User: Fold this.
Amino acid sequence: MSTVATLRVEAPGLGRDAHFQPAIAALKSSPAFASWSTSSLGALAAVSSLRSFGGGQAVMVAGTKPEHVLLVVRGRLRVVRRADKGREVTLETFRPG
Assistant:
């Protein structure tokens, strides 16, 4: 099972209490956000959400425009394409960070 922080580009909320700590911890675990200040991470966490996806569950469908940025916190996220006769071909595997 993978945990994914879904990030939306919106005006940041004002609350930065303990409610956002799991999202802040998830963002800090990524090299892309490691140098960000705690207040910046708090603003981003305020408009983020942590979601879990089960194995084999579709997170996105090919050909659709993504509405969110995904950050893998735990587990892995595979990008697959169906080949002839339904066989899955892995195009990319994303791991935490």
In short: DSSP finds two helices and five strands in the chain.
